[in-house]
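User: quick one, sequence for these tokens?
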């Protein structure tokens, strides 16, 4: 079994921005030379998420709108009582979506649906650089 690790660096992301990372993950799988196994991508931080979606303009708008309905910015969050940083909703949203995703690899390729892409979603109120950690395990 081989373990290959790398990172994906995102220059600057803004609140509710969704970044398609599918092609970068595919490139890393090829670079790893692993033909059968899994790839895990993880965001280090409590206000970002890794998701799958059909990366198209409608969903790029629908997902942030949905998050606003289930974890609105306007609610009072206990996080604000501690830190006063305006991102209590960001933490709640990130907890709902999750910081990582594992995708199978077969014949040296990611297994995903035709219209299914892998993406990073920024949920924090401040623009920031992000580092995604990628681990590929297999043979």
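Assistant:
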């Amino acid at each position: 079994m081989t373990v290959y690790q790398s990172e994906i660096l995102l220059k600057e992301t803004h609140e509710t921005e969704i970044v398609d990372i599918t092609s970068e993950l595919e490139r890393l799988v090829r670079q790893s030379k692993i033909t059968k196994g899994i790839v895990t991508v993880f965001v280090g931080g409590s206000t970002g998420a890794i998701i799958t979606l059909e990366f198209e303009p409608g969903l790029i708008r629908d997902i942030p709108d949905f998050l606003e309905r289930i974890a609105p910015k306007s609610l009072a969050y206990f996080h604000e009582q501690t830190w006063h940083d305006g991102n209590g909703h960001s933490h709640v949203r990130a907890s709902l979506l999750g910081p990582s995703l594992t995708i199978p690899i077969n014949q040296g390729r990611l297994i995903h649906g035709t219209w299914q892409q892998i993406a990073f979603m920024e949920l924090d109120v401040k623009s920031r650089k992000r580092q995604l950690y990628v681990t590929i395990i297999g043979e």
